[in-house]
Amino acid sequence: MNHKIAPSLLAADFLHLQRDIEMINQSDADWLHLDIMDGVFVPNISFGFPILDALKSVCKKPMDVHLMIVEPQKFIPEVAATGAYMMNVHYEACTHLHRTVTAIKEAGMKAAVTLNPHTPVSLLEDILQWH
Prior knowledge:
It is built from 5 helices and 4 strands. A 4-stranded parallel beta sheet has the order 1-2-3-4. The two termini are about 20 Å apart. It is of the alpha/beta class. About 30% of the residues lie in helices and about 15% in strands.
């Protein structure tokens, strides 16, 4: 079984962010996972696009941008502009999931879909067959 290692930026020391990014760059990690939270879709607030923009010049690992926000489709161009490898959206936050996944791919990124714990996996059958 193949595994991917994707440490989360939320575990970093934000007072020493570049140092921690360099540690990830030197590690065997496959990706850098970036949780973007808006305080609406999820109760927490994390960092936003200014941090992603700063990371693109120092992060050597592919960036997996996980939008835990309402209407993530509105931010596809901004995520793509950061050089992100993958944009990860929540099933529950996308009214038109097929359109969102297509737009992510058309923007040059891999698309990922996350489910909240209460959401049945079977709801992804259509999207898995479609893509």
